[in-house]
Specification:
The chain has a four-stranded mixed sheet with strand order 2-1-3-4, with helices on both faces. Helix content is about 40%, strand content about 25%. The protein has three helices and four strands. The protein is globular. The longest helix is centred in the N-terminal third of the chain and has 12 residues, at about 15-25. The protein has one domain (about 15-75): Glutaredoxin. Strand 3 (about 55-60) and strand 4 (about 60-65) form a beta hairpin. This is NrdH-redoxin.
Length: about 80
């Protein structure tokens, strides 16, 4: 699989853990960016998506807000 995701997370977010665990299960490699420890990335993310919450995942040029397996598969199938 050639897809690679970027997952924006925070240190205390259970849905972020669910997202990364799910990507592990379906064998999609990802990079995590922790907005708790890197506030500049959090600000940049807010400018891009207009959303403050995490997880936010960029996969195949699409943004997935929250833990949403259906959207993950839609991005993989695109």
């Amino acid at each position: 699989m050639s897809e690679k995701a970027t997952v924006y997370v925070s240190s205390t977010c259970p849905y972020c853990t669910m997202m990364t665990n799910y990507l592990d299960e379906i064998h999609v490699p990802y990079e995590t960016i922790n907005v708790s420890t890197n506030p500049a990335e959090g600000e940049r993310l807010m400018e891009i998506t207009g959303q403050m919450g995490v997880p936010q995942t960029q996969l195949n040029g699409k943004w997935i807000i929250g833990f949403d397996p259906a959207s993950i598969h839609a991005a993989l199938d695109a």
